[in-house]
Design goal:
The chain is an all-alpha fold. The protein has helices spanning 14-19, 31-36, 119-124, 129-140, 155-164, 166-183, 188-207, 218-238, 246-274, 282-291, 300-311, 316-338, 345-355, 358-365, 369-384, 394-406, 415-420, and strands at residues 47-49, 64-66, 82-84, 114-116. The termini are far apart.
Length: 426
């Protein structure tokens, strides 16, 4: 029987291409990758080149992978592998979005190789003006989101780490591109595209780099893990595929939580070295140690929520899990209320997903009503800082969606958040 003709997709995601399965091209995460909890990437090809005065011809694109998150069949919180395929060629406005790399020896074919754009792009434009634009935005605007009072005197030193660590500078530029996509609505898709490409490139370089935590690598590893987590959270919150499909959003958010568990392992391994007397990030970490601790009591709305959960007799393990999530939310609320110039209030909002236990993500993925109600209470913090580019209207969106999903049966559980966010359309 002759093979049935079919239209071949040339714009599918890289993971579907690698697995040779049909991609529905849903962005930023296709249905196949959502269902299988894989990293979904739409990318351009970058190349290894041999160090030379002039760029040589392109060679085969590298395969990349990163041990983050959790895969199917593993235990909660366990690490899994993020697999990325060899990237296929694609065009975009303004040329390719190849990242920044460095090296002096191509013999290993890995971390010592140089990643460059195509030869034509380099010959036409020796300086990548997009990267210059992104670095300027990063230095003058993006970092102020987290340090509005310019409390961190070691900021120039932190940027010096990025210059000598290719995977870090690519991820920093990726975050800056994501920021610029919110600043320029007319070029939103353009900057969002390059944010995804730079992050893909950063992950590929990181995979081929030395992951051993030492005195020399702990700071760039810590910065990379932190910025990568913020990038993933922001992309999930503000780039919602379909505002009418809350189920898709929840799938993406729980996907982010699972990936971030792997990021947390990097932070734990580097923690003691980072708090050494001569660490450049020690002042910020010391401030965090003081701020991020639960000393009670709970705010009235959170206390009512905990009382309702306790009275529901869900079992000790689940009750303790929700208690930890609620107490973590109180910690972050306290940080946001403190107005401490050493620590931007938005940091408190960002940290909550890091503090919750892996099993909370599982409860959210299972659409357990109590887990959704806790998420709606976190949405209050997102709403308070809705003018921040990281969050946008995500707080109102999450609360309104949870209310619609749970219905009138859970109305009393959500009375506190609804009182705060009065302009949400219910």
């Amino acid at each position: 029987m002759p093979r049935r003709a079919h239209k071949k997709s040339r714009n599918g995601c890289l993971e579907c291409k690698r697995r040779h399965v049909k991609c529905d091209e849903n962005r930023p995460i296709c249905s196949n990758c959502t269902a299988s909890e894989r990293i979904c990437e739409y990318g351009t090809r970058w190349f290894y080149t041999t160090p030379a005065p002039r760029p040589g011809p392109p060679t085969a694109a590298p395969k990349s992978g990163l041990g983050l998150g959790r895969g199917p069949g593993s235990s909660p919180g366990a690490a899994t592998s993020i697999e990325s395929s060899s990237l296929s060629s694609a065009s975009t406005e303004g040329g390719t979005s190849a990242g920044i790399g460095t090296g002096s020896d191509s013999r290993t074919g890995s971390e010592n190789g140089i990643y460059t754009p195509s030869q034509a792009g380099l010959s036409d434009q020796p300086v990548n003006m997009l990267h210059v634009e992104l670095f300027h935005n990063l230095y003058t605007k993006t970092y102020l989101t987290f340090d509005p009072g310019r409390f961190s005197p070691g900021l120039p030193g932190l940027f010096s780490y990025s210059i000598t660590t290719p995977y870090l500078i690519n991820e920093m530029l990726a975050l800056s591109a994501l920021h610029m996509s919110t600043l320029h609505p007319d070029k939103r898709d353009y900057y969002h595209y390059h944010a995804a490409q730079l992050q893909t490139h950063a992950l590929a370089i990181f995979k081929d780099s030395n992951h051993q935590v030492t005195q020399e690598t702990c700071v760039p590893l810590f910065l990379f893990a932190s910025i990568l987590g913020i990038h993933m959270l922001c992309d999930t919150l503000i780039y919602r595929e379909n505002n009418n499909d809350f189920s898709t959003f929840l799938s993406r958010f729980t996907h982010y939580l699972r990936l971030h568990y792997g990021v947390r392992t990097i932070l734990r391994e580097a923690w003691f070295l980072l708090r050494a007397a001569d660490s450049i990030v020690k002042p910020a970490l010391d401030a965090g140690m003081t701020l991020y601790k639960f000393d009670g009591p709970l705010d009235p709305a959170l206390q009512v929520l905990l009382d309702r959960i306790t009275a529901s007799k869900l079992g000790q393990d689940l009750t303790d899990l929700y208690r930890q999530a609620i107490e973590s939310l109180q910690i972050c609320t306290n940080v946001a209320n403190a107005g401490d110039q050493r620590h931007a209030a938005v940091n408190g909002v960002v940290v909550w997903p890091i503090l919750v236990q892996p099993e909370y993500g599982d409860a959210l993925a299972a659409r357990r009503p109590e887990a959704l109600v806790i998420l709606a209470h976190w949405a209050v913090l997102l709403w308070r800082y809705r003018e921040t580019w990281l969050f946008g209207d995500s707080g109102a969106y999450i609360l309104g969606s949870v209310v619609d999903l749970l219905g009138t049966e859970w109305e009393a559980w959500l009375r506190g958040p609804r009182r705060v966010i009065q302009d949400v359309h219910m």
